[in-house]
Amino acid sequence: MHQKNDATGAPTRRRLIAATAALPLVTVLTRPARAAEFNYKLATGQAPSHPVNLRAQQAIGQIQEETHGKLEIKLFPSNQLGSDTDLLTQVRIGGVQFFNLATSILATLVPASGLGNVGFAFADYPAVWKAMDGALGDYIRAGIVKAGLIPVSNIWDNGFRQITSSTRKISTPEDLHGFKIRVPPAPILTSLFESLGAAATPINFNELYSALQTKLVEGQENPLPIIATTKLYEVQKYLSMTSHVWDGYQILGNRRAWHALPEETRGIVSKAFAKAGLAERADVAQLSQTLEQQLAGKGLEVVPVDRANFRTALQKTNFYQTWKMKFGTQGWSLLEDSVGRLT
User: Fold this and answer.
1) What would the pLDDT profile of 311-334 be if each residue is shown by its tens digit?
2) Which of 94, 50, 14, 73 has the alpha carbon at shortest distance from 254?
Protein backbone atom coordinates (compact mmCIF):
# COMPACT_ATOMS: atom_id res chain seq x y z
CA MET A 1 0.00 0.00 0.00
CA HIS A 2 1.49 3.35 -1.07
CA GLN A 3 1.64 6.26 1.35
CA LYS A 4 -0.40 9.35 0.32
CA ASN A 5 1.83 12.28 -0.82
CA ASP A 6 1.16 16.01 -1.39
CA ALA A 7 1.70 17.73 -4.73
CA THR A 8 5.49 17.86 -4.32
CA GLY A 9 5.68 14.11 -3.66
CA ALA A 10 6.42 14.52 0.09
CA PRO A 11 4.30 12.76 2.72
CA THR A 12 1.49 14.84 4.17
CA ARG A 13 2.11 16.51 7.55
CA ARG A 14 -0.63 14.41 9.14
CA ARG A 15 0.97 11.21 7.91
CA LEU A 16 4.43 12.31 9.08
CA ILE A 17 3.23 13.15 12.59
CA ALA A 18 1.40 9.84 12.84
CA ALA A 19 4.44 7.87 11.70
CA THR A 20 6.76 9.76 14.05
CA ALA A 21 4.44 9.26 17.02
CA ALA A 22 4.54 5.51 16.45
CA LEU A 23 8.34 5.26 16.51
CA PRO A 24 8.94 5.32 20.30
CA LEU A 25 6.41 2.51 20.81
CA VAL A 26 8.14 0.35 18.22
CA THR A 27 11.48 1.08 19.85
CA VAL A 28 10.20 0.02 23.29
CA LEU A 29 8.66 -3.17 21.97
CA THR A 30 11.78 -4.29 20.11
CA ARG A 31 14.40 -3.24 22.67
CA PRO A 32 16.17 -6.38 24.00
CA ALA A 33 15.55 -7.29 27.65
CA ARG A 34 18.32 -6.43 30.05
CA ALA A 35 20.61 -9.43 30.44
CA ALA A 36 21.06 -10.92 33.89
CA GLU A 37 24.47 -10.50 35.49
CA PHE A 38 24.33 -14.03 36.89
CA ASN A 39 22.69 -17.03 35.17
CA TYR A 40 22.52 -19.99 37.56
CA LYS A 41 20.95 -23.45 37.49
CA LEU A 42 18.98 -25.22 40.21
CA ALA A 43 18.77 -28.99 39.73
CA THR A 44 16.36 -31.30 41.55
CA GLY A 45 15.44 -34.97 41.29
CA GLN A 46 11.73 -34.55 41.90
CA ALA A 47 8.87 -34.38 39.41
CA PRO A 48 7.71 -30.88 38.39
CA SER A 49 4.49 -31.32 40.39
CA HIS A 50 6.30 -32.10 43.65
CA PRO A 51 6.12 -29.33 46.30
CA VAL A 52 9.91 -29.02 46.16
CA ASN A 53 9.74 -27.72 42.59
CA LEU A 54 6.58 -25.67 43.01
CA ARG A 55 8.08 -23.82 45.97
CA ALA A 56 11.53 -23.59 44.40
CA GLN A 57 9.99 -21.89 41.38
CA GLN A 58 8.21 -19.50 43.72
CA ALA A 59 11.56 -18.65 45.36
CA ILE A 60 13.18 -18.17 41.96
CA GLY A 61 10.51 -15.66 41.00
CA GLN A 62 10.98 -13.74 44.23
CA ILE A 63 14.75 -13.70 43.76
CA GLN A 64 14.50 -12.40 40.20
CA GLU A 65 12.10 -9.66 41.29
CA GLU A 66 14.08 -8.54 44.33
CA THR A 67 17.43 -8.55 42.47
CA HIS A 68 15.80 -6.60 39.61
CA GLY A 69 16.74 -9.36 37.18
CA LYS A 70 20.43 -9.40 38.09
CA LEU A 71 20.24 -13.05 39.20
CA GLU A 72 18.33 -15.45 36.98
CA ILE A 73 17.95 -19.06 38.18
CA LYS A 74 16.61 -21.75 35.87
CA LEU A 75 15.01 -24.83 37.43
CA PHE A 76 15.82 -28.31 36.09
CA PRO A 77 13.58 -30.93 37.78
CA SER A 78 13.35 -34.73 37.38
CA ASN A 79 17.10 -35.36 37.20
CA GLN A 80 17.22 -33.66 33.80
CA LEU A 81 20.89 -32.81 34.33
CA GLY A 82 21.92 -36.21 35.72
CA SER A 83 21.41 -38.64 38.59
CA ASP A 84 21.61 -37.49 42.20
CA THR A 85 25.17 -38.78 42.54
CA ASP A 86 26.16 -37.08 39.26
CA LEU A 87 24.61 -33.81 40.38
CA LEU A 88 26.38 -33.92 43.72
CA THR A 89 29.63 -33.93 41.77
CA GLN A 90 28.38 -31.17 39.48
CA VAL A 91 27.46 -28.82 42.30
CA ARG A 92 30.86 -29.38 43.87
CA ILE A 93 32.73 -28.45 40.68
CA GLY A 94 30.29 -25.73 39.59
CA GLY A 95 28.50 -27.45 36.70
CA VAL A 96 25.30 -26.48 38.48
CA GLN A 97 25.17 -23.70 41.04
CA PHE A 98 22.32 -24.99 43.24
CA PHE A 99 21.15 -28.54 43.91
CA ASN A 100 18.36 -29.93 46.04
CA LEU A 101 19.50 -33.24 47.54
CA ALA A 102 18.05 -35.70 50.04
CA THR A 103 20.09 -35.81 53.23
CA SER A 104 20.36 -39.60 53.04
CA ILE A 105 22.41 -39.28 49.84
CA LEU A 106 24.27 -36.16 50.96
CA ALA A 107 25.56 -38.31 53.83
CA THR A 108 27.95 -40.01 51.38
CA LEU A 109 29.85 -36.68 51.31
CA VAL A 110 28.80 -35.15 54.64
CA PRO A 111 28.43 -38.03 57.14
CA ALA A 112 26.74 -35.82 59.76
CA SER A 113 23.87 -35.28 57.32
CA GLY A 114 22.80 -38.87 57.96
CA LEU A 115 21.98 -38.12 61.60
CA GLY A 116 18.52 -37.15 60.44
CA ASN A 117 18.04 -40.56 58.83
CA VAL A 118 18.59 -42.85 61.81
CA GLY A 119 15.99 -45.61 61.70
CA PHE A 120 12.86 -45.06 63.83
CA ALA A 121 14.49 -42.12 65.62
CA PHE A 122 11.78 -39.48 65.06
CA ALA A 123 8.26 -40.14 66.27
CA ASP A 124 6.66 -37.13 64.55
CA TYR A 125 7.27 -33.75 62.90
CA PRO A 126 7.61 -31.75 66.13
CA ALA A 127 10.55 -33.97 67.04
CA VAL A 128 12.03 -33.50 63.55
CA TRP A 129 11.91 -29.70 63.56
CA LYS A 130 13.09 -29.48 67.15
CA ALA A 131 16.27 -31.20 66.01
CA MET A 132 16.72 -29.79 62.52
CA ASP A 133 16.01 -26.16 63.43
CA GLY A 134 18.08 -26.48 66.58
CA ALA A 135 21.56 -27.57 67.59
CA LEU A 136 21.57 -30.73 65.47
CA GLY A 137 20.69 -28.74 62.34
CA ASP A 138 23.49 -26.26 63.09
CA TYR A 139 25.92 -29.16 63.50
CA ILE A 140 24.90 -30.66 60.14
CA ARG A 141 25.15 -27.34 58.29
CA ALA A 142 28.63 -26.82 59.72
CA GLY A 143 29.57 -30.20 58.24
CA ILE A 144 28.26 -29.12 54.83
CA VAL A 145 30.41 -25.99 54.93
CA LYS A 146 33.48 -28.06 55.87
CA ALA A 147 32.81 -30.23 52.81
CA GLY A 148 33.09 -27.15 50.58
CA LEU A 149 29.40 -26.53 49.90
CA ILE A 150 26.94 -23.87 51.00
CA PRO A 151 23.73 -24.76 52.89
CA VAL A 152 21.59 -22.04 51.31
CA SER A 153 18.72 -22.25 53.82
CA ASN A 154 17.31 -24.36 56.62
CA ILE A 155 16.41 -27.89 55.63
CA TRP A 156 13.31 -28.65 53.52
CA ASP A 157 11.03 -31.66 54.02
CA ASN A 158 11.20 -34.91 52.09
CA GLY A 159 8.93 -36.69 54.55
CA PHE A 160 8.69 -39.92 56.47
CA ARG A 161 9.60 -42.87 54.27
CA GLN A 162 7.18 -45.75 53.69
CA ILE A 163 7.68 -49.20 52.10
CA THR A 164 5.92 -50.39 48.94
CA SER A 165 5.98 -53.90 47.49
CA SER A 166 4.78 -55.80 44.44
CA THR A 167 5.04 -59.26 45.99
CA ARG A 168 4.25 -59.32 49.72
CA LYS A 169 2.68 -57.34 52.52
CA ILE A 170 5.24 -55.89 54.92
CA SER A 171 3.46 -55.75 58.27
CA THR A 172 6.08 -57.17 60.66
CA PRO A 173 9.88 -57.06 60.79
CA GLU A 174 9.93 -60.74 59.82
CA ASP A 175 8.25 -59.89 56.50
CA LEU A 176 11.42 -58.07 55.46
CA HIS A 177 13.56 -61.22 55.59
CA GLY A 178 14.92 -61.80 52.09
CA PHE A 179 12.84 -58.95 50.66
CA LYS A 180 14.56 -57.37 47.62
CA ILE A 181 14.18 -53.65 48.22
CA ARG A 182 15.60 -50.69 46.34
CA VAL A 183 17.24 -48.04 48.50
CA PRO A 184 18.96 -44.82 47.40
CA PRO A 185 22.77 -44.77 47.36
CA ALA A 186 22.71 -44.05 51.09
CA PRO A 187 24.73 -46.35 53.39
CA ILE A 188 22.52 -45.73 56.42
CA LEU A 189 19.40 -46.96 54.59
CA THR A 190 21.24 -49.99 53.23
CA SER A 191 22.42 -50.72 56.76
CA LEU A 192 18.91 -50.31 58.20
CA PHE A 193 17.28 -52.83 55.88
CA GLU A 194 20.13 -55.29 55.96
CA SER A 195 19.98 -55.21 59.76
CA LEU A 196 16.30 -56.21 59.48
CA GLY A 197 17.12 -59.05 57.11
CA ALA A 198 16.20 -57.50 53.76
CA ALA A 199 18.27 -57.64 50.56
CA ALA A 200 18.91 -53.93 49.99
CA THR A 201 19.99 -52.77 46.53
CA PRO A 202 21.23 -49.18 46.04
CA ILE A 203 19.80 -47.73 42.80
CA ASN A 204 19.72 -44.10 41.66
CA PHE A 205 16.28 -42.51 41.73
CA ASN A 206 16.08 -41.93 37.97
CA GLU A 207 16.32 -45.73 37.49
CA LEU A 208 13.79 -46.64 40.19
CA TYR A 209 10.60 -47.01 38.13
CA SER A 210 12.23 -49.33 35.58
CA ALA A 211 13.84 -51.39 38.35
CA LEU A 212 10.40 -52.01 39.83
CA GLN A 213 8.77 -52.55 36.46
CA THR A 214 11.32 -55.19 35.40
CA LYS A 215 11.21 -56.88 38.83
CA LEU A 216 14.89 -56.22 39.44
CA VAL A 217 13.66 -55.45 42.96
CA GLU A 218 10.38 -56.29 44.68
CA GLY A 219 9.85 -53.01 46.42
CA GLN A 220 11.19 -49.65 47.47
CA GLU A 221 10.81 -47.02 50.19
CA ASN A 222 10.04 -43.33 49.80
CA PRO A 223 7.83 -40.62 51.25
CA LEU A 224 4.23 -40.58 50.02
CA PRO A 225 4.60 -37.44 47.84
CA ILE A 226 7.41 -39.15 45.90
CA ILE A 227 5.39 -42.36 45.51
CA ALA A 228 2.47 -40.32 44.19
CA THR A 229 4.22 -37.84 41.88
CA THR A 230 6.35 -40.54 40.22
CA LYS A 231 3.37 -42.94 39.88
CA LEU A 232 5.08 -45.84 41.60
CA TYR A 233 1.62 -47.17 42.38
CA GLU A 234 1.54 -48.35 38.76
CA VAL A 235 4.18 -51.00 39.48
CA GLN A 236 3.49 -51.77 43.17
CA LYS A 237 0.65 -53.52 45.07
CA TYR A 238 1.15 -52.84 48.79
CA LEU A 239 1.93 -49.75 50.86
CA SER A 240 3.22 -50.32 54.40
CA MET A 241 3.07 -47.26 56.65
CA THR A 242 6.34 -47.89 58.46
CA SER A 243 7.62 -44.27 58.73
CA HIS A 244 10.96 -45.97 59.32
CA VAL A 245 13.08 -42.93 58.50
CA TRP A 246 12.52 -39.19 58.16
CA ASP A 247 14.38 -37.55 55.31
CA GLY A 248 14.99 -33.93 54.42
CA TYR A 249 16.27 -31.91 51.48
CA GLN A 250 19.25 -29.58 51.63
CA ILE A 251 19.47 -26.75 49.12
CA LEU A 252 23.18 -26.85 48.33
CA GLY A 253 25.16 -24.09 46.67
CA ASN A 254 28.50 -24.17 44.88
CA ARG A 255 30.91 -22.18 47.03
CA ARG A 256 32.56 -20.19 44.23
CA ALA A 257 29.24 -19.31 42.58
CA TRP A 258 27.78 -18.32 45.94
CA HIS A 259 30.59 -15.97 46.87
CA ALA A 260 30.55 -14.46 43.36
CA LEU A 261 27.16 -12.98 44.23
CA PRO A 262 27.07 -9.62 46.03
CA GLU A 263 26.36 -9.91 49.74
CA GLU A 264 22.95 -8.27 49.34
CA THR A 265 22.01 -10.80 46.65
CA ARG A 266 23.11 -13.71 48.82
CA GLY A 267 20.81 -12.42 51.55
CA ILE A 268 17.90 -12.25 49.11
CA VAL A 269 18.55 -15.82 47.94
CA SER A 270 18.76 -17.24 51.46
CA LYS A 271 15.64 -15.40 52.57
CA ALA A 272 13.64 -16.54 49.54
CA PHE A 273 14.64 -20.19 49.88
CA ALA A 274 14.03 -20.14 53.63
CA LYS A 275 10.52 -18.75 53.10
CA ALA A 276 9.81 -21.26 50.35
CA GLY A 277 11.20 -24.06 52.50
CA LEU A 278 8.75 -23.35 55.32
CA ALA A 279 5.89 -23.41 52.84
CA GLU A 280 7.20 -26.64 51.34
CA ARG A 281 7.29 -28.25 54.79
CA ALA A 282 3.62 -27.41 55.25
CA ASP A 283 2.82 -28.73 51.77
CA VAL A 284 4.48 -32.09 52.37
CA ALA A 285 2.91 -32.52 55.81
CA GLN A 286 -0.55 -31.76 54.41
CA LEU A 287 -0.02 -34.05 51.42
CA SER A 288 1.10 -36.89 53.65
CA GLN A 289 -2.22 -36.71 55.52
CA THR A 290 -4.28 -37.09 52.35
CA LEU A 291 -2.13 -39.22 50.05
CA GLU A 292 -2.60 -42.46 51.95
CA GLN A 293 -6.26 -42.50 50.94
CA GLN A 294 -5.53 -41.24 47.43
CA LEU A 295 -2.92 -43.94 46.83
CA ALA A 296 -5.37 -46.55 48.05
CA GLY A 297 -7.71 -45.22 45.36
CA LYS A 298 -4.93 -45.79 42.82
CA GLY A 299 -4.86 -49.49 43.69
CA LEU A 300 -2.30 -49.74 46.49
CA GLU A 301 -3.40 -51.83 49.46
CA VAL A 302 -2.48 -49.90 52.60
CA VAL A 303 -0.91 -52.11 55.27
CA PRO A 304 -0.93 -50.75 58.86
CA VAL A 305 2.10 -51.61 60.98
CA ASP A 306 3.21 -51.28 64.58
CA ARG A 307 6.36 -49.17 64.39
CA ALA A 308 7.32 -50.19 67.93
CA ASN A 309 7.82 -53.78 66.75
CA PHE A 310 10.23 -52.63 64.05
CA ARG A 311 12.18 -50.41 66.44
CA THR A 312 12.42 -53.25 68.99
CA ALA A 313 13.69 -55.58 66.27
CA LEU A 314 16.25 -52.98 65.20
CA GLN A 315 17.44 -52.50 68.78
CA LYS A 316 18.27 -56.22 68.91
CA THR A 317 20.78 -55.71 66.11
CA ASN A 318 24.00 -53.70 66.17
CA PHE A 319 22.50 -50.94 63.97
CA TYR A 320 22.34 -48.17 66.59
CA GLN A 321 25.73 -49.00 68.15
CA THR A 322 27.38 -49.09 64.72
CA TRP A 323 26.05 -45.72 63.65
CA LYS A 324 26.73 -44.13 67.01
CA MET A 325 30.41 -44.97 66.50
CA LYS A 326 30.36 -43.71 62.91
CA PHE A 327 28.70 -40.39 63.74
CA GLY A 328 30.75 -39.81 66.87
CA THR A 329 29.74 -38.84 70.38
CA GLN A 330 28.96 -35.18 69.67
CA GLY A 331 26.57 -35.74 66.78
CA TRP A 332 24.84 -38.72 68.41
CA SER A 333 24.35 -36.79 71.64
CA LEU A 334 22.71 -33.93 69.76
CA LEU A 335 20.34 -36.42 68.12
CA GLU A 336 19.42 -38.07 71.42
CA ASP A 337 18.90 -34.64 73.01
CA SER A 338 15.96 -34.30 70.61
CA VAL A 339 14.57 -37.82 70.32
CA GLY A 340 15.59 -39.57 73.54
CA ARG A 341 17.84 -42.53 74.17
CA LEU A 342 18.31 -44.85 71.19
CA THR A 343 20.90 -47.30 72.49
Assistant:
1) 999 999 999 999 999 999 999 999
2) 94
**3-state SS assignment for residue 251:** strand
CATH number 3.40.190.170 given to 35-339:
yes
Q: Which pLDDT band, with edges at 50, 70 and 90, does 45 fall under? A: very high
Type of residue found at 153 = S
SS3 245: strand
Amino acid at 103: T
Task: Classify 29 as helix, strand or coil.
Answer: helix
Please tell me the number of Cα atoms within 13 Å of 55 on its side-chain side.
22
Local structure of residue 306 (DSSP, 8 states): -
What distances in angstroms separate CA 287 from CA 36, 259, 269, 282, 290, one per listed residue?
36, 36, 26, 8, 5
CB 76 within 8 A of CB 94: no
Enumerate the domain spans of the chain: 35-339
The pTM assigned to this predicted structure is: 0.86
